[in-house]
Amino acid sequence: MAASIIDVAQAVGVSPSTVSRALRGRDGVSDELRVRIIAVAADLGYTASRNASSLASGRTCSIGVLAPYVGRWFFGTVVDAAERVFSAAGYDLLLYNLGSVDSRKRFFAELPVRKRVDAILSLLIPTEDEAERLRSLGIPLAITVGGPRPGFTTVGIDDRAGAELATRHLVNLGHRRIGRIGTQPSAPLYWTTPDLRRRGYLDVLVDAGIPHDPDLEADGEYTVEGGERAMTRLLTAVRPPTAVFAESDEMAMGALRALRAHRLRVPEDIAIVGFDDHELADVVGLTTVAQPVAEHGTQAASLLLRLLRDDTDVPDHVELPTHLIVRNSTAPHRGSLHGGIE
Amino acid sequence: MAASIIDVAQAVGVSPSTVSRALRGRDGVSDELRVRIIAVAADLGYTASRNASSLASGRTCSIGVLAPYVGRWFFGTVVDAAERVFSAAGYDLLLYNLGSVDSRKRFFAELPVRKRVDAILSLLIPTEDEAERLRSLGIPLAITVGGPRPGFTTVGIDDRAGAELATRHLVNLGHRRIGRIGTQPSAPLYWTTPDLRRRGYLDVLVDAGIPHDPDLEADGEYTVEGGERAMTRLLTAVRPPTAVFAESDEMAMGALRALRAHRLRVPEDIAIVGFDDHELADVVGLTTVAQPVAEHGTQAASLLLRLLRDDTDVPDHVELPTHLIVRNSTAPHRGSLHGGIE
DNA sequence: CTGTTAGCGCCTTCAG
DNA sequence: CTGAAGGCGCTAACAG
């Protein structure tokens, strides 16, 4: 059995409360005594039981993190960045992988974080019901990757503007048949990103006077494999696209794979733009809309920490910048002489 | 304030103990009463406080996961897979990102998991001191990614054999100047993988009668950027390699990037083999030694669960298979007419 | 500056 | 089958 606070107290010859105070750096303990207590505690290998202390104090020193899928580069990077901030501040991280509809349902039904965490960082965008459940917890809440939301501190990017950047780049290169790989607006899990990126895409088409062709849109499920399937489908269109905007780099890479399988050259036969600036986008030469991914985690975690410290003027939404990075996967449309139309 | 067990007890008109028994499915409660209690609990939105119940019972229903860096594809995938297994069994996951020397030191010094988790899954290979600290916890311990270790249940691959697979492939293609991108054997964090993979590489060289040239080895730090730098360095050798074995796909991709920057063609000018079968290895056409990454997490988690259930005959080491996947980054050495020498 | 007294919310004996 | 008592290990008011 590990040492308890009482063992330490007896060894030093003081009361448990004094030990508690000394070890947590509270004042009201003479320096000399404190030093002695710390030494004895170290000697006995004593560490306060987090459970007991949070039961008694109400603070848990843990943060709940809700992610759809830590295996995906984007989310892994965000979680990683957030973890660094939290652990530096002495908080542990309780990770909930809510990728499947099932696990997500169960989580919100049981709310296993109740009384277990001091705050929650969600990498998934909750439905209104889910948001309400979260708010009922009465603790600081943050969402990364998404727009403003009442009751939450949010950090995100302007998805619509980012998508416009990508699409306009293709239009400027002279492309008129521009495909899109995204995902169904009505996916089982509530998630606005695809919707916004699609709108950005449509905005630019309208602006450029390009008629919208539903045949040029395909569902890539935001995965590499999905992107591959989607690209394959787009190639079967009566008039295939000459350029494609993939709403994530992972789907773009899947598209690249499909194109290679069909012996089509990029960008000569088809131009591709992705979104995110995945760490490997550079390796494959993918043109993409960059966003500071780790920054999502860092910022959200810092905001939560400030909320936990009762800081005033904590912003309730932070918008991160995006910018286009042109690499080798895009080039002027072969029909056009030069890229710049605008 | 959320409902407590007492609220439920009063609402039903029974004692707290009965509520506790009923809700946890213990017998000693009449069916009719149990149904009623469950209904009232649901109605009040009651969920037992994990802290209080673990304080009282000694069980925490949490698993500690130690990872070096969840942002890296490999670890993210393993954590993700493990999380699925644990959460299906009702366990929460406490994630510790121990990538930096600092955080790692602090973790082992304070051991914040003490009395907070029922078992530990480590994705990093502990030093002997660290292993001892973990054993002192007296709970089931597992290490994924590594060889057998007393006191731990381990699941891993045969790194040396895997590296031999990669190197032999290059030898069979007629290459004689074979470079290696790995990392310093004496990296700050104890970790045997690079050592073993290097040995596999050396084994094959010796076997093929190829003299070892230290100039052909470079440190890629197991990252994309590191791999890029390492490849760049290898190109400055008096007699550069005609083929390179990169000990991870991420380093291999970095190497690919460096080669592109130098306008060298793969595999015509230089052949590259990676290790892991990263989800994007296929996209870039990388020949690699595949290992079932998610399986590491799934297996280790399942073993831990069995240990937690006091199952008998839980194996203390599980070895996962590796195999070579040949894609487009390798080809016969230009000097050789055919690949097969063996 | 330090000790005492009560709990935090639940589970686990033990009686009935 | 059910209830009462005690305690898990710690912290927070109070006293002194």
Automatic annotation (TrEMBL), chains A, B:
InterPro entries the UniProt entry points to: HTH_LacI, LacI/GalR-like_sensor, Lambda_DNA-bd_dom_sf, Peripla_BP_I
Pfam families, alphabetically? LacI, Peripla_BP_3
Q: Does the keyword Hydrolase apply?
A: no
Source species, domain of life: Bacteria
> HTH lacI-type domain: from which residue to which, for each copy?
3-57
Q: Which PROSITE patterns match?
A: HTH_LACI_1, HTH_LACI_2
> What one GO molecular function would you report for this record?
DNA binding
What keywords are annotated for this sequence in UniProt?
DNA-binding, Transcription, Transcription regulation
Q: Report the protein name in the record.
A: LacI family DNA-binding transcriptional regulator
Q: Where does this protein come from, organism-wise?
A: Kitasatospora cathayae
The record lists the lineage as: Bacteria, Bacillati, Actinomycetota, Actinomycetes, Kitasatosporales
